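Translate sequence into structure tokens.
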Amino acid sequence: MNRSFEVYGLSTGIITVDDSISDHVIASAKQSCNGFNDGDILVLAETAVATAEGNVITLSTITPSRQAQELAIHYKMDPRLVEVVLTESDSVVGGIPGFLLCMKHGTLLPNAGVDASNAPLGCVTPLPKNPDNSALTIKHAIEAKTGARIGVIIADSRTHAMRLGCSGVAIGSAGITAVIDDRGRSDLFGRKLEVTKRAVADNIASAAELVMGEADECIPAAIIRGLGMPIGDQTGIETIAAEECLFMGVFRKNEKF
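Result follows.
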């Protein structure tokens, strides 16, 4: 990878159901950075992708189950939101007031990724149903329309243990190697690295979120240019089993709801 790169925020206007994400970002890229170039990596906010795919839920249509009502009382949440979270999650391992800590697709995350931020009033947006497929579909659409070979990352915002604030994390990827294995390389003093892997897609997502923002910026996408990563057809982000995870190893001892 190169030692420097550029980040361009893409203002698209509000994304609505059935909008073409590729058309929105292509038009914005022409204004922001003269369009797409070979090797560009496009980062997209998961809420915009989910919305365009029609994955928007109106809370007034939700009837909470008894389990949702009990969890809502315990964690001081809207029971309709809890019901959506239960539907979206693989399991619930705990929580704090306002949030349930969930397992979904091998990842530990709050409220199973269900988010009311940047969703229409009275609505929430779950994560895209298949983020890797979403990334690949958008990649192919942009490549077909522009001729540029690009990578695509679907990004979400996450908190980290014992840290205030959130940063970007990749939940879907197409066209780049999302995790680079540095095991076997030497450190500054010649010692062989034994466990180090670089979460490249997560780092790129965090860099993009600096210009994308979290509020009313209306910049749901960014182009990372000049990083020098090879572009291919691979998809997906490597994960680890729960028993291998330092944080999840603690939560597995707790009773699941």
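Note: Residues 1-54+127-257 form a domain with the 60s Ribosomal Protein L30; Chain: A; fold (CATH 3.30.1330.100).
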